[in-house]
Amino acid sequence: METKLLEVRNLHTHFKTEDGVVPSVNGISFSVAKGETLAIVGESGCGKSVTSLSIMGLVAPPGQVVGGEILLEGQNLLALNKKELRKLRGNKLSMIFQEPMTSLNPVFTVGNQLGEVFRLHQNMDKQQARGRSIEMLETVGIPRADKVVDYFPHQLSGGMRQRVMIAMALACNPALLIADEPTTALDVTIQAQILELLKKLNDEYDTGVILITHDLGVVAEMADRVVVMYAGEVVEQANVFELFASPKHPYTKGLLGSLPKLDEQREELESIPGAVPNPLEMPGGCAFHPRCPLATEQCQSKKPSLVEVAPDHLARCLYA
Q1: What CATH number does domain 4-107+152-305 carry, 3.40.50.11540, 1.10.101.10, 3.30.750.200, 3.40.50.300?
Q2: Where is the ABC transporter domain (predicted)?
Q3: How far is residue 73's CA from residue 208's CA, in Å, rounded to a whole number?
Q4: Separation CA 145–CA 312 (nearest Å)
Q5: Nearest Cα to Cα of residue 171 among 222, 209, 122, 211
Q6: Which of 21, 171, 222, 284 is the most exposed place for a label (fewest CB within 10 A)?
Q7: What confidence tens digit (pLDDT) does each residue in 200-254 have?
Q8: Intra-chain end-to-end CA distance of the chain, in Å
Q9: What's the pTM?
Q10: Does 101 have pLDDT greater than 70?
């Protein structure tokens, strides 16, 4: 039996606004094993990034985790104070953010920012931290790392900055790495290199990875299991082969149908009509019913539960 590195149980994260309470994450549960890559997919606004920030303890006011448990190696992160969480972040728990230019401080060198991780978590002096920083830059494939360590972020390309972010995230060999759209701002060849790098590090260090993306091509390439989110809820969960071969939820089918396929010639790709609903004006019954081609009257009034529709395959649909 594989050991569960992370368990998220019935997580609720709400934002208090002038117009009311926005339930951004609404009772989601999933787990990640050591060395496993779990992809969380869905359109913008479905709660993917808020889920990752909730795990990291980085939800900013007016947002707040209001319920559930987040267990990392059995320890409930929601029971920790800020100081204890800070000690954990960057050490056991790391995150690669989607925009490296805003995540790196423009007035400090790469070595200064990377070295801080070693000084903070591993009590190294400046010289030792610099040496380890150069090693980490080499690990993530940065050429002339001994020179780059003294560069400022603006002197690096987007791909190089993202590699620096990965080096920072992996500096202390974290047990769990969260990658939030790690290739969004990069061109396709650099994307492939970054994903290859993440895969290699995942294999070498047995790190558990949560990959947050809306790119199903990346999911097929990287993930072991997939969680599909819609309107703050998990609507489907399965291993990657099962999900691509036999999707059960109409939303997942719509996402997969919008991908171009090499073996098919089509005039136009399928699309899912409409948009993710405003969390303050959630439709009754199934949240997806206004956009669903299979919706019936029952879908408008009855809220479906997340149930097992095949071995280790969950879906939230009355007709799955």
Answers
A1: 3.40.50.300
A2: 6-256
A3: 11
A4: 44
A5: 122
A6: 284
A7: 878 888 889 999 988 888 899 899 999 999 999 999 999 999 999 999 999 999 9
A8: 28
A9: 0.90
A10: no
